[in-house]
Amino acid sequence: MDPTPPKPHGESRLHDLPIDDLLGELSSRIGEIVLGRERLRALLDAVIGIGSDLELAAILDRIVAAACTLVDARYGALGVLDDSGGLADFRTHGLTEAEIVALGDPPTGRGILGHIIDVPEPLRLEDLSKHPASVGFPPGHPPMRTFLGVPVKVGEKAWGNLYLTDKRGGGQFTDDDEDIIKALAAAAGVAIDNARLYGQLADSQAERERLVVFRDRDRIGRDLHDLVIQRLFATGLQLQSIVHLVGEPVAAERVHAAVDEIDGAISDLRAAIFSLHTDADQAFSQTVRGLVGVVRHHLGFTPQVEFAGPVDDDVPELVRIEMLAMLREALSNAARHAKARQVSVRIAVEEAVLRMRVTDDGVGMPAQAPRRGLANLASRTESLGGEFTILPAEPSGTELRWSIPLDPPK
Predict the structure, then answer these.
(1) pLDDT tens by residue, 135-167
(2) Rounded to whole angstroms, how far apart are CA atoms 131 and 64?
(3) Tens digit of pLDDT for each residue in 8-52?
(4) Report field, pTM of the whole predicted structure over 0.70
(5) What's the per-residue H, E or C state across the chain?
(6) pLDDT: which is higher, 49 or 89
(7) Which of 177, 216, 349, 359: disulfide with 399, CB 3.0–4.6 Å?
(8) Is residue 186 a contact partner of residue 50, using CB atoms and an 8 Å limit?
(9) Could you tell me which of 407, 366, 361 has the C-alpha nearest to residue 384?
(10) CA quadruple 109, 114, 120, 121: dihedral, nearest 10
(11) Closest to 331 in 3D by CA, of 340, 322, 320, 318
(12) Transmembrane region positions (predicted)?
């Protein structure tokens, strides 16, 4: 009977190996363990990274970048599906700006991309050009050979797909690469779902806050109309009813002037109420036309209005609010002081600059005219980083000009 005790399972093979082979085997196993830990740590870092943001666009970009890093891919993309199964969004990583411009419109979901949309399962290829669904690359597209595609699901529904190409070093994507991208895609689905829920909650909260603001505006508008305007109107009627009792011509003239000032104040209040009721979602040009319609009663005619450039798309809300206030004041000044028969308004967006011009054919700006209102216009313009200019119009009248940068330097 052999007195040598039996060796633990696996030990016999190791003891039978030559010493050099044994050291090589141990080194290889240690290398695999270290690599596994490093990739696991990289995956955890990626999951934490994409889960630390609640903005959907930022999350999508982080997912693509993390996927490329985890499997050492030169190029990556994340295609977001629309309701019809096409691509609603396409985020890329690894392409230069020049390459993106050269490619033109993003893909719509044909070829290999369309195959994964139709068959939402992982796909790994040694040469994507040899797949039956391949339709080739458009002009300007960089060459790509190896391919790994994995669906991204939110719940049970395919939400998009991760596409990775060109394993660095010329190798193929491995089983481990596929597993780690599947794990990333699962985490990405959770992060995307959280971001969508957060976005919905934020939209709901913003809508509630917006409703509160509009209720306050409505209350202020009603108070201005029912309390302030009605009292001013009654005061004006009382003054008109007693003006015939004033024997002194100078005093009577002052009463008439006071009535005119009350009429002007009422017109200004009505314009202010209109601004309070203006919806931020309303087109800027439509809001301007509405304001002009409100003040035309005080002017006695409707000003001419002209627009040029993308005034409805490129003017931020803050600039809109300020420009409407300044236009209201400019039109009020024209009604009160210019004695004009025509007033024209031109608003244009040219090279990221909003330009507004209000011109009347009235008596012009008297040298001793009060400058408080004009100083207010200049101050408002300066707060927006713009310029305000007063010029004499030809052949008579006054021209007011504003120039507001829409993309001011930071």
Answers:
(1) 878 777 888 899 999 988 877 777 888 999 999
(2) 23
(3) 444 444 344 445 554 554 455 555 555 566 777 777 777 776 666
(4) no
(5) CCCCCCCCCCHHHHHHCCHHHHHHHHHHHHHHHHHHHHHHHHHHHHHHHHHCCCCHHHHHHHHHHHHHHHHCEEEEEEEEECCCCCEEEEEEECCCHHHHHHHCCCCCCCHHHHHHHHCCCCEEECCHHHCCCCCCCCCCCCCCCCEEEEEEEECCEEEEEEEEEEEHHHCCCCHHHHHHHHHHHHHHHHHHHHHHHHHHHHHHHHHHHHHHHHHHHHHHHHHHHHHHHHHHHHHHHHHHHHHHHCCCHHHHHHHHHHHHHHHHHHHHHHHHHHHHCCCCCCCHHHHHHHHHHHHHHHHCCCCEEEEECCCCCCCCHHHHHHHHHHHHHHHHHHHHHHCCCCEEEEEEEECCEEEEEEEECCCCCCCCCCCHHHHHHHHHHHHCCCEEEEEECCCCCEEEEEEEECCCCC
(6) 89
(7) 359
(8) no
(9) 407
(10) -130
(11) 340
(12) none
Instruction: Give the distance, in angstroms, between the CA of residue 234 and the centroid of all CA atoms in the same chain.
Output: 48
Long-range contacts of 176-180 (CB under 8 A, 24+ apart): 176/39, 177/70, 177/71, 177/124, 177/148, 178/122, 178/124, 178/148, 178/150, 180/39, 180/43, 180/70, 180/71
For residues 273 and 221, the answer to whether their CB atoms sit within 8 Å is: yes
Question: Which residue carries 């934490």 as its tokens?
Answer: 48
Question: What would the two tokens of residue 231 be?
Answer: 């009292």
